[in-house]
Amino acid sequence: MASPEPVSARHRDGAAPACVVRFRHARRNPGHDGDDASGLCLRGGRGMHAPAARGGCTLVIALRGTVDVEADDGVFHLGGRRFLALAGNVPRRILAGPGADWILVHAPSRWVQALTAPTDRRGLASPLLLPAALPMDRGMLHRVSALLRLAPHPCDGEAGRELAGLVLAAREAQTHAVDWVERAYGRSERHRRAVVARLLTARNRILNAPFDTHDLRALADAARYSPSHFLRSFREVFGMTPHDLLTHTRLLRACALIQDGKLAICEIAARVGYESRHAFSRSFKRATGITATRFRASHR
């Protein structure tokens, strides 16, 4: 059970969020009355927001519009009906665009430990959520709606169940969206999830900064693996090498710029990180089967 408690919090610019609710455990031990024993649901709109530092597990959910989430592995760009799961601390900063509607849901460390403890009736393998930006499924959307219906004055008995239910629905949505854990090596699910979480540190850095130079050793260090072990594991889990992912991400951006039609091909090549138009043209044709010029002509 949990007891809800409205709290006051403000955006960086001083405007109050649309809804902030804190859910406290009804049964808590002495010395655990601080923020580390409470869950949080915050809903906001356009603007910049800097959540207070809190340990545990955090979900940032973009319901509408675009939301940029600054975290340890760079800036994640969320479109509508996508969510980002973060282990550990909350995001450093959230920047929401015009017309954006988003929520931040935080489950404290004690709640996460209860859900993943082997002796608990759930015994879910940790980490509870993988650090990745993925689309929501129908079950997660239903849980989001149920939680928001309780705010800002939820019933005492229902608030904690809905908060935990949303976190578990996010875990299910991750399982439905990707098969990374099944592809990872390891004798147990706990081990495989830990492997994927470490590899996602490197993958997120590539996706969040595709136009930067990403050295293999630096990416391996971020995942805490040797370069050879990292390269092999990355390919097994994600089905491509880090270089392939970098090229794929850059070319997706290039396709969008070509369709936009405002920049010349040589300008697009430089914009997406290629030193010359020729290098870009070779890479584009190898990936798509047609030249960039023909691709542009086919989308006019």
TrEMBL record:
InterPro entries: AraC_XylS_family_regulators, Homeodomain-like_sf, HTH_AraC, HTH_AraC-typ_CS
Name assigned to this protein: Helix-turn-helix transcriptional regulator
Molecular function, one GO term: sequence-specific DNA binding
Domain of life the protein comes from: Bacteria
PROSITE patterns: HTH_ARAC_FAMILY_1 (PS00041), HTH_ARAC_FAMILY_2 (PS01124)
Record keywords, A-Z: DNA-binding, Transcription, Transcription regulation
Keyword Transcription regulation applies: yes
SUPFAM superfamilies linked to this entry: Homeodomain-like
Gene3D superfamilies: Homeodomain-like
Domain HTH araC/xylS-type: 197-298
